Each structure stands twice: as structure tokens, then as C-alpha cells.
Amino acid sequence: xxxQTHKAKDHIDRSINALVGKRIVGVRHMSKKELEMLDxxxxxxxxxxxxxxxxxxxxxxxxxxxxxxAGYLYIQEKxxx
Length: 81
What we know:
three-stranded antiparallel sheet, single chain, 27% helix
């Protein structure tokens, strides 16, 4: 693993661990203003996902650590018994 890759992995691990204990209070699509700030050219904002936490933290689903584009959030629900 290169030094750059190792640094990116450490950042991602810290970011993920920082979410433990937070409560999700909302899930929404990005606003047009947010899309413009990231320079993402989406005509369909349904392709974007933002998860809002109780302390104001936002998690944005994107394709890579550099936030070059939106990504897909796969959700696997627990089987109903």
C-alpha cells in the first residue's frame, strides 16, 4: 500500500468511526446549491444521498474519497421473520 493510499484509508477509518453513537435524523437528496458547490452536474438529484445526524454531521455518498462524483448507497435490510 502506498503512503498516499494508507493516508486515505486512515482518514476514511477515522471518519467512519466518528459516526458511532450518532443518531440519524434525516436522509435526503442534495440541494442544487450543494451540487454546484461540489461541481457535480446532475440533472436528477435523486442520484445523490445525504445522511443527516443529530449533531449536524452530514455524510455524503460519493464514488471516491476525493468526492469526484456521486455514488450509490446499497442498503441490505435484515430479513423479516
